[in-house]
Amino acid sequence: MSDQSKILTETTGAVSLITINRTDSRNALDKEATCQLAEAFRQFDQDDNQKVAILTGSGGSFCAGADLKEVSEKADYIPWAGHPEGPLHQHLSKPLIGAISGHAVAGGLGVALYCDIRMADETAVFGVFCRRWGVPMSDGTPTRLPRLIGAGPAMDMMLTGEAVSAQKALELGLITRLTSSDQLLSDAFELAERIANFPPLAMMSDRDTIYSQDGKDEKTALLEEWHGARAAIIKEASTGAAKFSKGEGRHGEFEK
């Protein structure tokens, strides 16, 4: 894809790299870029050869949210999370890793929250910066942020609009991995390739259970966990146990 595109995609083995490419606006998403991002997600999700995706931004920023210049001109704005056609409406069927540098603010925070794993470098900044302009969050942040870091810290971020550093984000659990700017993408690829190499059924059923259990009573959640695990138990568990008995995977080395 041309480097003039607003969303760049490339593949390396079983890993897709999706890059928001609007450096002149800190990778804020206008309507065209939003549609392109949704399409990039769809293509990844439908490609059986791709197992894990990395989402990042070009030019030292992740995403500064919606393009407010376009919004001010009353563009036809589709809520990113709540609308069925929004790019953040429903989680992908496969893992998505956010590799975050610079600003992940306003709607860009919602884009980060859409990822399954968020890793960041020391330049990363998170925050509900749109609080300053009276723009509401329709990107999933009011729903996903408290589920991730708890209602108290989420309310503080939502009401104050204050910047949250990468180190503070790590302490809150907003990100789970902190690395250096020169290592961010290489670390993201190393993690993605490791995840892509795991037997998929068990991993994906466990991932689905984490998302589906929220808000359910424990008995219901445990029953759904068991139902979701049955295919992996039948197709993968016995094979994996046999490999373990032969010494495979005991020191962090895995093969499908």
What is this structure, in a nutshell?
By secondary structure, the protein is of the alpha/beta class. 43% of the residues lie in helices and 15% in strands.
Quaternary: single chain
Strand order of the largest sheet: 1-2-3-4-6-9
In CATH terms, the superfamily of the largest domain is 2-enoyl-CoA Hydratase, Chain A, domain 1
CATH fold descriptor of the largest domain: 2-enoyl-CoA Hydratase, Chain A, domain 1
Set out the fold topology.
Elements (H helix, E strand, L loop, with lengths): L6 E6 L2 E6 L10 H16 L5 E6 L10 H5 L23 E5 L2 E3 L1 H8 L2 E5 L3 E3 L13 H9 L1 H10 L3 E2 H7 L4 E3 L4 H13 L3 H13 L5 H28 L11
Parallel strand pairs: 2-3, 3-4, 4-6, 5-7, 6-9
Antiparallel strand pairs: 1-2, 7-8
What this model shows, in words?
The structure is a single chain. By secondary structure, the protein is of the alpha/beta class. The protein folds into 2 domains: 190 residues, 2-enoyl-CoA Hydratase, Chain A, domain 1 (Alpha-Beta Complex), CATH 3.90.226.10; 46 residues. It is 43% helix and 15% strand. The chain contains 9 helices and 9 strands. A 6-stranded mixed β-sheet has the order 1-2-3-4-6-9, with helices on both faces. β3, α2 and β4 form a beta-alpha-beta unit.
Label this structure with key terms:
single chain; 2-enoyl-CoA Hydratase, Chain A, domain 1; alpha/beta; globular; 15% strand; 9 helices; 6-stranded mixed β-sheet; 256 residues
